[in-house]
Structures are given as structure tokens and as C-alpha cells.
Amino acid sequence: MKVVSGDAENYQIAVYRAQVIASFKGPATGETIYFGPYVGERLGWDYVVFLRNISKPVSPKKTSSAGYGTIQYGEVFDEGYGSMMISYECVFGGRGIAQQCDYGVRVCTNYVRLPKSIHTFPPAKEDTAFGCRWVRKTVFVSLLETLGRKKQRVVK
């Protein structure tokens, strides 16, 4: 999803509006969604986000036309670690720039478990703040697509 705007002034929590770029479960591609409550998402940036639907809508503090109005929103899992930034980075292994640079997803592996077959940069043996590491976007998205297909087969 792409974060298109945010509002930390008119609500009791931070609320972001985003456009769904690709969906593995939940809202369809192209839909507008609202999520929160953690401050720090970058406007205009892409994220992979795991959300839990909140049944009670959130309303602006003022009843005027402030904010987005009363909205349904999703809460980011794991104290905000379920929101993973996508960025072009030059941190991946390889000999040349073409191998070292790629779009990646920042995954905090102290909170999000990945299969051992997924390579992280830096590797898991190196200490990082909160265990946050980069995973190539194509690899991470492929994993999510595979998990989404398995989940759909079980439900049917």
C-alpha cells in the first residue's frame, strides 16, 4: 500500500489513509483504507502492512469537517512492527551494484518470523536495532502470495 496522507491532530490516535497496491487478504487492490495508531509512517512511501480490523469506528475530536470524518480503520499488528517499509536499498549481497541494490522490505525479525530459507541483510547473526533487516521485495512478496494461496485453499 502507498500512504497518501496522515492525521495526528484531529483524532485521539494517528490515522493514515492509504491506497492498496496489492492485496494478499482483505481489501481489494485499488481500495482506500485507513490505519493506525502508530506515528512515524512516511507519506508517499510504500509499505507492507498487517492489520487487524477494529470494529468500532474512530471519529475526529471535533464534529466539524475535520480529518477524514468517522472512519473504519485497521490497527497495525505487534505494536507497529506489522508495518514494513519498502525502499530501494544497496544493502544486499553480491559483487556488483546490480546485485547489491534492489527494492527491499524492512522486516524486524525480532517480531516477525521468516522462514530460514529467506536471506536477510544484514544476516541474522549480526545485531541490529530491534532485529530489523532488509529482505528483497520480490522474495517477500512471493512468500506472501504463497501463504495467501495456501490460506484460500484451506478456506474453500
Summed up:
With 156 residues, this protein is an alpha+beta fold.
Structure description:
This protein is α+β, with helices and mostly antiparallel strands and 156 residues long. It has two domains: 2-80, no CATH class; 83-155, no CATH class. It contains two helices and nine strands. The strands form two sheets. Strands 1-2-3-6-5 form a five-stranded mixed beta sheet, with no helix packed on it. The protein starts with a strand and ends with a helix. The mean pLDDT is 92.
Give the SSE map.
Blueprint: E1 2-7, E2 15-19, E3 32-36, E4 46-49, E5 51-53, E6 74-76, E7 83-89, H1 97-100, E8 102-108, E9 132-136, H2 137-155
Parallel strand pairs: 3-6
Antiparallel strand pairs: 1-2, 2-3, 4-7, 5-6, 7-8, 8-9
Count every helix, treating DSSP H or I runs of 4 or more residues as helices: 2
The amount of helix comes to 10-25%
Series of H and E elements: EEEEEEEHEEH
Radius of gyration: 17 Å
- Uncertain runs: none
Mean pLDDT: 92
Assembly category? single chain
Q: Tally of extended strands?
A: 9
Cross-sheet strand order for the largest sheet: 1-2-3-6-5
- The computed structural class is alpha+beta
Q: Could you describe the largest sheet, including whether it forms a barrel?
A: 5 strands, mixed
- Strand residue percentage: 25-35%
CA(first)-CA(last) distance:
27 Å
